[in-house]
Amino acid sequence: MKHLLKIVSVNQSFVLDQQRKLAGRGAWVHEKCLQLALDRKGLVRALGDSNSESLETWLRNQAQNMADTQ
Q: What residue numbers bound the domain in which 18 lies?
């Protein structure tokens, strides 16, 4: 379960739920499957957001931040 990321849509913005306790519409995705989930629009459907570009930009920033901290 440690390789699954929980992404939550809260008030029209996205949050990486590291504590795995936030309320709101969310999606679980394996960290290595993010690009596939974006390509297939699975995260967009799961999070109920029609703006896939904002989600993809947000995810790229999150991935970069995670890489920088490791």
A: 4-69
